[in-house]
Amino acid sequence: MRLGPLQEIPPGEGRTYDIGRESVAVFRLRDGELRAVQAACPHAGGPLADGQIDRQVVICPLHLHVFDLGTGCAKTGQPDLRTYPVHLDDEGFIVLTIEELAMTGPQRSGGAGHQQLSPPEGQACDKRSEELA
User: Fold this and answer.
1) Distance of CA 87 to the CA centre of its chain
2) For the segment 49-75, what is each residue's pLDDT rounded down to a tens digit?
3) What are the angstrom distances between the C-alpha of 43 and each of 31, 62, 81?
């Protein structure tokens, strides 16, 4: 599903898109790569697209919980995030595939393929709390 042009997301930031009954946060990393995770923090529903990011993690803006952008694994003891395949098409549009959801079309929320990927098959998230370096 096409969400919108890449230019909607400045490098180093995220945006939330509503797809059917789900909201997905899409992040444009500073190196140009894209990542997509569920939009709401599982702790208290914080808007993850408004969080701080680097190449590895997003930090929830409400209570500073940390999640791996590639796997969705929580680094601070919270439930893991759902992650989604996302890429850029030949025309510069962000494309997300969520087969299991009934979709009515993307709508960009304010502020900020294939299947669910959290975590990759055969890889469990490490549930020990980690400190940020």
Assistant:
1) 12
2) 999 999 999 999 999 999 999 999 999
3) 29, 9, 10
Q: Could you state, in order of their start, the residue ranges of all structural domains in the chain?
A: 2-108
Q: Give residue 42's Cα distance to chain centre.
A: 13
Q: How far apart are CA 61 and CA 72, in angstroms?
A: 16
Rounded to whole angstroms, how far apart are CA atoms 78 and 61?
A: 14
The Cα 109–Cα 11 span in angstroms is 18
Q: What is the pTM of this model?
A: 0.79
pLDDT per position as a tens digit, 83-97? 999 999 999 999 998
Residue bearing tokens 């959801």:
101
Task: State both tokens at 125.
Answer: 């998230």
What is the rounded CA–CA span in Å between residue 34 and residue 21? 22
Q: Are 86 and 77 in contact (CB under 8 A)?
A: no
What type of residue is 111?
A: G
CA distance 85 to 122: 18
Homologous superfamily assigned to 2-108: Rieske [2Fe-2S] iron-sulphur domain (2.102.10.10)
Residue type, 28: R
